[in-house]
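Quick log. Single chain, no ligands specified.
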Amino acid sequence: MKSPRLLALAWLCAVACQAAPPPVAPPPAAPVPATPAVAADTQNVNYSVRVEWRDTKKGTNSLQLVTCDGNFNLNTISGTVTLGDADIPITVKLQGALTVLDADQGRLQIFLGRTVPYPTSFSTGPGAKGNGSYSQMSVGLDSRFIVTFGKPLVIQSDDNGEVAILIKRLDK
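-> predicted structure:
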């Protein structure tokens, strides 16, 4: 009698052990997409962007802004021109994007220019008073450069003067 009970107990253990699925290994982790290698010391850093232009007639002017890597845009009024009876503002534009390549260099895409007003119509009204309308056109330099942080780069030079850009890394 012990044999059938022992046999039944063995069969019950075998069935019970098969009822629980064997442990399954977790699936392999998904591959991490490749990202550009940027050193930890180039993250969360501000940069000073300074553009200086020397004009043989008007002297030296400059624009400076502080930004981190990415896009920047600066428009400022630099004077006026008179069209008819109206004083029209002229703006200087500094737009671009800074991409940090490593702790020493970056790629700079830049537009440096100004608006130039031009008359689109003009008429003389009663009392010889002039009326007119105008439009603005942006003119300037649009280019890309590799810059070394802390070293000025002359980006334009001719008989009328030169334009230089200096980007400094502002460490914490």
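Residues 40-125+132-170 form one domain.
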